[in-house]
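LAB NOTEBOOK - FOLDING QUEUE
OPERATOR: T.R.
BATCH SIZE: 2
PURPOSE: Compare the predicted structure-token outputs for two unrelated chains run back to back under identical settings.
PRIORITY: normal
REVIEWER: second-year student, initials M.K.

ITEM 1
FIELD SEQUENCE / FIELD STRUCTURE:
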Amino acid sequence: MTHSQDKLAYRLFAASLLLVAAALTQACRTAPALSAGIDVAGIDKSVAPGDDFNAYANGAWLNKTEIPADKSAYGVSAILGDENKKRLRSLAEESAKGGATTSEDAKKVGAYYSAYIDEAGIESKGIAPLKPQLDAIAAIASLKDLSRAIGASLRADVDPLNNTNFETPNLFGVWIAQGLDDPSKNYPYLLQGGLGMPDREYYLSASPHMAELRKQYQQHVAATFQLAGLADPAARAARVVALETKIAKAHATRLESEDVKAAVAWKSVDLAAKAPGLDWPALLEAAGLKDAPTIIVWHPKAIPGLSALAAKEPLDAWKDWLAYHAVEGSAPFLPKAFVDERFNFYGKALTGAPQMTPRWQRGIDWLNTDLGWALGKLYTDKYFPAESKTKAQAMVADIVKAFGLRIDALTWMSPETKAKAKQKLGTLKVGVGYPDKWPDYSGLEIAKDDALGNNERADLFEYRRQIAKLAQPVDKGEWWMIPQVVNAVNLPLQNALNFPAGILQPPYFDASADNAHNYGSIGAVIGHEISHSFDDMGAQFDGEGRLANWWTTQDLDHFRAAGEALAAQFDSYRPFPDLAVNGHQTLSENIADVAGLLATYDAYKLSLGGKPDDVKEGFTGDQRFFLSFGQSWRSKSREALLRRRIATDGHAPAQYRADAPRNLDAWYAAFSVQPNQKLYLAPEKRVRVW
């Protein structure tokens, strides 16, 4: 579950990127005169809760709020994210001043930030910092050279669920994690990539909207070539888009990418036979993978198709493709003309944002990407006290306990499956705030006058850090999300959760608010993350993170039937006349929404100790619980971004997720929802997955 996209949204390893904040349970139980916590002024009482719960909970706020010009979406997560960036900016600026007590990592943070915001220095260099890379691409003269170039460009930054980190794509993505069948060792995973737009549908869909974006994309590619001073930019752009269209046709679809069981383990020596075309020995050597005996291929149909294209398509087309993406990926660190052109397509066209964010904010974003752990250490040292971590851990433990009680109470699940589910829940490893062990940046060179070089070295440093794990034991406590982000994640292969410090604060948790608010707001999303261990993907992994079926046939059939009912529910949501939500594409997140809300409602009731909750602000405890949940999904989005997310994201739009309570009996009682209202579901139609 997420309110915003994140570069590290690795669906295999990160079942959900969830914007969540952990409530501090003990504070909720002991603080006097606790407030209701809900935003009464944001409610639109002219809307019946049973007709549109999101509009009821958030309508007044939605009506009066404008999306800022530099954003494509706006809501509580964006507001909190902006506040966090101000804190991070102060840390970066202080680090840039240096001093005798400044740590080496802090000095690197300061130098990186200083180099990025030095626009005059970047302008003075022009495209010269990129010339060695462009010259190397121009010198490619054979398939072996091309294979080496592709291997050398591989990075651990491709999202297998969305197919590619489309703004800086490589032909393949590489990720290092424990094996699907062997949790005792780390393996490289090979993923499809190579697209400059978000998904294959952007190249292949017949819709007028996608056709217009293709036209704008080709114009952007041509403009990028022209800025780089490369001859015949229009013809080069046509070749790049034609090649990427063929790459898109070879790609697995968005839904196919979610099929964990489709992944296969291939011996490295067999790649040439199983995926002919590329010079695989040359590619693997350049990628630092020549000593990896086995590679897990996440997209076994796509990889052979991409390899075949490498040999089939003209070498000049591939050189144009490499050159374009070399410039495109470096654009944020090049002169303003490159930055503006990149924003014209990736900002305005793809997300609808009319204005770029300030440069200092973009600098913080890149710091988070390239030196995120160093910046995160500074952040947690100053803004996340030890007592907050302790209290957040207690809140998580409460909801884990409630989820276990729900498993015990299931009438449809056999004792055998229940025992396995409880075993998995009992071995769930929860990380709160920050990791026990911080990554070491001592081998990374950062200079205060080399913005592009800093990014390139940091990117390669992180890739090599990941590759080095192939020779190391599996670390079950490894974190996959930096601690300053406003997000959270479930990790199926580790049977683990990460709740970063960045989201452990208001508005998702409010120490002055009562249990109804805190459980309904962020308690529900903690429950969501726990539930991901048991959603349609998480349920395929056992307590060791091994891909293994621990269900009886009858139990699994019941579980899948419930999932199909929920998918059908979301298929009916249509934000635009020509575009509906894909219930199967968003199924994992929808299951976790409903299951997490059910478990957290139970935990909320248990927290009251058998006593009825007070009426506050004119609302009962149950009403406040559900209102807090609905208001946690408060968000507005521009049409371009919303269309993109429906096409590529595993999360349903926020306005429909806010309506998840329609599956809980308690919501009907709380708001007297009637059969003639739009969200009403007959009791037998309400989905109860867990």
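ITEM 2
FIELD SEQUENCE / FIELD STRUCTURE:
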Amino acid sequence: MGFDGRRVVSFESRRAQEMADLVARQGGAPLSAPTMREIPVEQNAEALAFAERLFGGGFDVVLLLTGVGTRMLAKAVETKYSRERFAEGLKGVVTVARGPKPVAALREMGLKPTVLVPEPNTWRDVLTTLDRQSPVAGKRVAVQEYGQPNPELIEGLKGRGAEVTAVPVYQWALPEDLGPLRHAIREIAGGRADFALFTSATQARHLFQVAEADGTAGALREGFRRVCIGSIGPIASEGILAEGLKADYEPDSPHMGELVRDLARRGGDLLHKKRTAHEGGIDTHGWRRVDMAWGAEAERRAATADSAFMKACRREKADYTPIWLMRQAGRYQREYRELRATVPFLDLCKTPDLAAEVTLMAVDRLGADAAIIFADILLVLEPMGVDLEFSKGEGPVIHNPVRTAQDVDRLREVTGEELGYVFEALRVTRRALRPDIPLIGFAGAPFTVASYAVEGGGSRHYEHTKGLMYRDKGAWDALMERLTRLLTGYLNAQIAAGADAVQLFDSWVGCLSPDDYAAFVLPHMKRLIDGLKKPTPVLHFGTGNPSLLELMKQAGGDVIGLDWRVDLADAWARLGDDVAVMGNLDPIALFASPNEIRRQAQRILDKAAGRPGHIFNLGHGILPGASPDHVAVLVDAVHELSAR
């Protein structure tokens, strides 16, 4: 963990020393190269004109985009008017603060913002927040600009029907002493830098402005091909992209401390990947995660087989307890939410490059010991003729549920090959995934998939499912047999496409009694698992009813997943030493403090007692409201506390 003595270049100006201290505390060798200084707009006629129009009721909305800009605007207005009058004028309009810094500046004037723009505080977030909380159609809007105009924001406001007035309050200039910046350029161009940290788009622009003037821009861009670039957020990343580079990492929270800490945590792996890519001829200035390619297939297979995860599946000793997390790619991550804002869920599942990108993103950010392909357990129903929709806020909805023998007979017989987009996503992911990180394929177990098809969506009591089971066992068995054939072919095709292990999710099976499981589920599960290609490990996960564990083992699987409702030590004793186990931290534990998360992780590890064959996981998936930082705390805690 930490930068491990690597050279870290940062371009922060106002907080240059703070940045250097953060880097040093994380074990890096800091090189501070300030790129800009603030120049107040002299004799700010625009600010005074804004104030006069504000006092006259000429604005409806005032957008305050930076803390420094808000204070400078107040100072400019105070050259002619009192602070009290300015504050009184702002009370009469909707004030919009882009993040906490303008909030602090308003507080100094005794004011609170009407609208607060949430992280990551980009101009897109400003527009989205206004659309939700205070639409600007027909409104007169003043925008406090910072450093340079923001044409995208201005056009976005105008496109929504606003009358927009820009109020510039300060500009950015190059630092008076360019020595540190030129030194940083030489270090990067000469291959003597490992990381570069940007906290604004202006830093990237000024860096290359100096390099262009000195004739070193080409060498600088070439040097950046082997440097891991950290960006504080989307606006800085856009500025980096405008200079022909690509940010390699953005923290989920756009704060300097998070940027340094996250890169110290994950930067070693990201740097190794980028330099391996460059040596392999990949253009690291325009690449995506899916563009990565590692070594020869035989070497990859050997590295995968020797991984901690695969050893645990085989109940062999490993250097530490491996960890991966169900839903490790999901709504708790900003990068995932931003993608989902533009791509419907089913389209994301059905676009191989996007599904692979999301799968790889989770491993890059978490440092988990396995990846699980991004897909959904209900995708198999569509080719069978089931009308499936993912409704926003409601989850999956099936418009033609399967509730009678006639409905079962109408289902199309399919093999799973109709889901080729999943197999292509697996192939892309396996090629781009680090060799020592296994890739997990998955499917819903027949009972859970059948329950969705019968219920038509989520259920509390499963009355339709159990009604079909009890009323017409022949129809139930026919449905389960059809799903079992489909899922067997589907998982074997995933294995052929690159899955190193496969997991069966039986998320709803806990609603059954042991007798019902034995009669209605066990024969089908056993036939499915027996039909999967050997020696690929099979992870068998169910939730909600610990009394089913022995029957689940009887059905098959190399690893039995445990939810949080069972004691891990007791469950493993019941299952026996001839099977591995996975689990089983309560997902809600991720909402606790970091110290408590570590304590809970230690408790689970103590239950496993260092026995070979334990894979650490949650007792179910990560919840959308979980903190990415807390998820990282768990991963690090398991690695650290289980090291042998």
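REVIEWER COMMENT (ITEM 2): The longest strand covers residues 163-173.
FOLLOW-UP: none requested
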